[in-house]
Design brief:
Number of strands: 9
Strand content: 5-15%
Order of helices and strands: HEHEHEHEHEHEEEHEHHHHHH
Number of helices: 13
Structural class: alpha/beta
Strand order of the largest sheet: 2-5-8-1-9
Radius of gyration: 24 Å
Shape: elongated
Length: 286
């Protein structure tokens, strides 16, 4: 059992805290789904890819939409194609199996090797969606009535489920999961994350950008705070644009990379003109 708790330690492209590493390894050891919450841009989706890369396993992604039904993750019976073939084709439509297509959960079950299954943004679906998956995730099997066959998982997949907390998930579902909330990284952890993507970044540019970034995130009433991914995009834009670090102290270049709502841009500009306490932020010298 001890070895089971030391399988995942992050990857070359993903910095995972010790608490997150422990959550991943506990979920793997206990064979339970790992439910990940956190604000957008904290690396919830990338975690599944990191686990797959670190453990050398295939990754299957099931992107959830508002219209997604649990049945689609198991299998789909293409009745329309069968009807078309019966009228116009030359195939033997009596073999229903050829019209059964496995969904992402079904693919994970029949895989010849253990896979990492990402169920991404489960809270986008309706309230019954998580409960509809309980039996299959518990039993690692499902029944196809059209063919009278039961699909049993060859290997229990490592299941990672992400949620942006748009809806509350049912208690019965939560009881079956290992839960972890990814906190937004502080400045020191963010430096580690940035170093993975930009190992040769100018130190002065990074310091100026981080100071500006966290000041922007601290502004009250922002509708969408800039995330880690937007910081990385901003840094890349500044490098590509050849921006001198001193310019960060005179203006905030490429502001549209960081802020995506007009009201947030107006909030930022207002706070620069009317700084709290009568003092402009330390990075901003104008």
């Amino acid at each position: 059992m001890k070895n089971q708790f030391s399988r995942f330690r992050g990857s070359n492209s993903y910095i995972a805290s010790e608490e997150l590493q422990n959550s991943v390894n506990v979920a793997i050891a206990l064979g339970k789904p790992l439910l990940i919450k956190g604000e957008p841009g904290t690396g919830k989706t990338m975690l599944a890819k990191s686990i797959a890369d670190a453990l050398g396993k295939p990754l299957i992604i099931w992107n959830i939409k508002s219209t997604t039904k649990a049945q689609e993750g198991l299998y789909v019976y293409d009745t329309v194609q069968r009807l078309y073939d019966s009228q116009f084709g030359d195939r033997d439509v009596s073999d229903i199996r050829q019209y059964i297509k496995l969904g992402k959960l079904g693919e994970a079950f029949v895989s010849d090797e253990q896979v990492v299954l990402l169920i991404d943004e489960i809270d986008k679906a309706d309230l019954e969606f998580p409960n509809d998956l309980l039996w299959e995730l518990d039993q690692m099997s499902f029944y196809i009535p059209e063919t009278k066959e039961t699909v049993v998982a060859k290997h229990r997949p490592i299941v990672v489920i992400t949620s942006n907390a748009e809806k509350e998930l049912p208690d019965a579902f939560l009881r079956r999961c290992i839960f972890h909330y990814i906190e937004f990284p502080d400045a020191e952890r963010m430096k580690e994350i940035v170093a993975v993507h930009f190992p040769d970044l100018d130190r002065k540019l990074l310091e100026q950008c981080l100071e500006a970034f966290y000041w922007i995130r601290s502004l009250p009433n922002l509708q969408k705070k800039p995330s880690t991914s937007e910081l990385l995009d901003w840094l890349q834009a500044l490098v590509v644009g050849g921006i001198n670090p001193r310019k960060i102290g005179e203006e905030i270049p490429f502001l549209g990379v960081l802020l995506k709502k007009n009201q947030d841009v107006e909030t930022l500009l207002w706070n620069l003109r009317n700084p709290r306490g009568g003092r402009k932020p330390s990075f901003y010298s104008r």
